[in-house]
Amino acid sequence: MKLHGIQKMTLLDFPGCVSCTIFLGGCDFRCPFCHNFELIDGTMKATMDEDELIDFLNSRRGLLEGVAITGGEPLMHKDLPALIKRIHDTGYRVKLDTNGYHPDRLKEILDTGLVEYVAMDIKNSPEKYPLTCGVESVDLDLIYKSISILMNGDTEYEFRTTVVNELHDEEDFIKIGEMIKGAKRYFLQRFTDRDSVPYGNLTAPSFDKMYKFAEIAKEFIPDTRLRGVE
Asked: Element (H or E) spanning 107, and its range?
C-alpha cells in the first residue's frame, strides 16, 4: 500500500499515546470543509510505501508508542488489515479514523483485536448527511451499522463532529444525539479554515454556539467534550 503522508510525532491524534499519523488516499465523500482534500481528489503523490513505514517505525522504538491511521478514508483499502497487522507486529498500538461507510470491513478489522481505538465521524443529522458529505446521496444504513458495531463492541472509540457554521444548527445536535445516544464519548471539533479546504466562505461557529451545541449533545451523550475551542 502507498502512503500519502506522515506526521512523525503527535500527542493529539491518539488519546493517551505518543504516536505518528499516516495518511491514506481516497474517500467516499467530498466534504466541503475537509482539510485533506488533496488526499481524496488524487492530486497528492504517495510519499512512502509500507516497507519504508516499517523502517521508520523500527527507527523510532522508544520514542513512539502508536500509529494513527487516517485519510481520506482508510477502510476503502482492501489491504488495510494486512497493513495494520504489520504495524502491530512491529510492536505499536493502532488507532483508526473512519467515516463509518464501510461497516463490514470495520468489523473484520476490530474482530482481529489489533486496533485499540477508533474515531468515527458523525457528519451531521441524517437529513443533512449528503449536503455535509458533498455527495448526492448517502446510505445511512451503513452509518448506523458502524455506530452499532462500535457501541456494542469492546474496542475503545469516540464519535466526533466537525462543526461548521453554515452546516450545523441546534436541531442537528438533537438529531445527532438521538443517533448515538448512550455513546461512550463524543467530541465537537470547531472548524478551522485552511488553504487546503476546497470550498471558501465556510466559517467556524462562535464559542458560545459551540458550548450550546455541546450542552444539547450532553443530554444524549453525557461525556460530550469540545476540541479546538480555546
From this structure: helix 103-111
| Contacts (Cβ under 8 Å, ≥6 apart) of 230 | none
For 7-73, the DSSP string reads: EEEESSSSTTS-EEEEE----S---TT-TTHHHHTT-SPP-EEHHHHHHHHHHTBTTB-EEEEESS-
Q: Dihedral of the CA atoms 152, 157, 162, 163 (nearest 10)? A: 60
Q: What is the pLDDT of residues 108-129, one digit of tens each?
A: 999 999 999 999 999 999 999 9
pLDDT of residue 47: 80
What pTM was estimated for this model as a whole? 0.94
Domains of the chain (ranges plus CATH)?
A: 2-227 (3.20.20.70)
Distance from chain centroid for Cα 52: 24
Instruction: Quote the pLDDT of residue 168.
Output: 97
* Closest residue by Cα to residue 87 from 153, 24, 11: 24
Q: What is the pLDDT of residue 2?
A: 83
> In whole angstroms, what is the distance from residue 84 CA to residue 76 CA?
14
What average pLDDT score do residues 66-76 get? 95
CA 227, CA 39: separation in Å to the nearest integer?
Answer: 23
